[in-house]
């Protein structure tokens, strides 16, 4: 039997070699140092219909320009839909591998590097994505005058052109100009958003009735007067990145759409005109040693999230990854609510996507299990199945369901897709020095977050559910967060927490009679903190906050004005064996608004 097994193994290996194909791009005129966009598009097109293909790049720097790239209209969730130029259109392949062999893929202008759609078993590995000119404009403060509230800044290290027109500055890019749009001030010492960063935000309009002023001094520097509430310190680096929506999320680095079993490993992303990785309607994604970071001569990486997953299922697994210096969240995993615009009778609804950057996404198909929810309480109303979905346009869908409640409840309704909710595993990752949060996790799958390092300007981990602005669904069912390090979370100096779990409600919405989130465990984490904040929870059933250690840290000014643990309208809560060390003030646990079945004991340095 042993000899037969060995022989069978050898035969399988031989057959695999015979039926797999390694395509060396140099054999098709694709060589470093020149624009290879057209040749690559043609090569990928010639491989259509083939399985088990490895596209291999001899190590070098390959250039990609938009002029000869194929163009198609693309609806990319959480980005700006538009005609997009594609460098690697990897559509409909089975067992396809892109092996860069340590190469750099250098992009120029508005071009989308890698797009994978309708693929199964796609592997992306061993390459770097970069742009010759970053999508993020950087202003480095070289001098200031507090009395006149002015500062002089070096523009993009003097590497790119800019001009001042009608008292507004415009930054030159490949074939367009950016004004100052969304922006944030960073500290060059920490390479993170500066303490109290809101004080230093640049004006995108003049709310002081014509007092702001910008003057071009030379080809490298400009002087700004009354552009900020507080004069920024010398050395401050501003990230400015165009207006939104419509102006700063148009060229994601990697886009996965309706793929199965995707593997990304040993990939570095230095820049993107949007997110580093955006995945929608995908099943099973594994990330290992994905690095999204700033290039050595820059301070910022991507214009938006490092990684983002909408309406996926299976398992999202992220290990050994570095996500830093991006201008939004580290990772965001969620579904989406669509509004019920009208019930037509006969089990038919007209539904609409609500946020402009979710227009055109694939909400659901026949066979998907869905849930009607109250738009007033964001709580479940009735579960059913999609029988048919007809997409009328980018915003509206005609959905026919298999069954309906005996009586449709009054009030506004939304629909959530229950089938497309992934499990998530985050292990041994570092997410730091970014605007916004380290992780947003809103999925009904099983979630394990362990042995990671988080340091973010806003909340560390945000568990939300939003029927208000982004319409990111919904209530979680089972999340374990353990053995992580949270380093000075919330240095934007507002009421931010390592863990913040609460639905986002409008003033017209209200808490329902049942809890929104369920089964959240936050245990054995180490928190380095200037304010002592640990957990804020609203509308959670079965919350465990246990055996965490909070240590005072002097990196930022101490802040003593918030409840360290704030529990509101929760049920079945355990707060046990948490320790506070090094603080010179008392910490409080607050439980309010009908929080029931609470156990608080054996904590040190914190009291009710």
How many β strands by DSSP? Answer: 52
Q: pLDDT under 50 segments (min length 5)?
A: 12-18
What is the count of structural domains? 4
Using the coordinates shown, work out and report the CATH topology of the largest domain.
Answer: Pectate Lyase C-like
Largest sheet: 22 strands, parallel
CATH class label of the largest domain = Mainly Beta
CATH architecture assignment of the largest domain:
3 Solenoid
- Give the proportion of residues in helices: under 10%
Strand content range: over 45%
Radius of gyration: 25 Å
If you average the pLDDT, what whole number results? 95
How many DSSP H or I helices? Answer: 2
Shape label: globular
Let me know the CATH homologous superfamily of the largest domain.
Answer: Single-stranded right-handed beta-helix, Pectin lyase-like
Helix/strand-derived class?
A: mainly beta
Termini distance?
67 Å
Summarize the structure in words.
The protein contains two helices and 52 strands. The chain is mainly beta. The protein has four domains: 21-82 and 92-129 and 252-331, 3 Solenoid (Pectate Lyase C-like); 137-240, no CATH class; 337-417, Thrombin, subunit H; 437-607. The longest helix has 18 residues, at 2-19.
Describe the SSE topology.
Blueprint: H1 2-19, E1 21-24, H2 37-46, E2 51-56, E3 61-64, E4 70-74, E5 82-91, E6 94-107, E7 112-117, E8 120-131, E9 137-145, E10 150-155, E11 162-165, E12 168-172, E13 177-179, E14 183-187, E15 192-193, E16 213-216, E17 221-225, E18 237-240, E19 254-257, E20 260-269, E21 277-280, E22 283-292, E23 307-310, E24 313-319, E25 322-324, E26 331-334, E27 337-345, E28 348-352, E29 369-374, E30 380-391, E31 396-401, E32 413-417, E33 423-427, E34 430-434, E35 439-442, E36 446-450, E37 453-456, E38 461-463, E39 478-482, E40 485-487, E41 499-501, E42 517-523, E43 526-529, E44 535-538, E45 540-546, E46 549-552, E47 565-568, E48 571-576, E49 579-581, E50 587-592, E51 596-601, E52 606-607
Parallel strand pairs: 1-2, 2-6, 3-6, 5-7, 6-8, 7-19, 8-20, 19-21, 20-22, 21-23, 22-24, 22-25, 23-26, 24-33, 25-34, 26-35, 33-36, 34-37, 35-38, 36-39, 37-40, 38-41, 39-42, 40-43, 41-44, 42-45, 43-46, 44-47, 45-48, 46-49, 47-50, 48-51, 50-52
Antiparallel strand pairs: 4-5, 9-10, 9-18, 10-17, 11-12, 12-13, 14-15, 14-18, 16-17, 27-28, 27-32, 28-31, 29-30, 29-32, 30-31
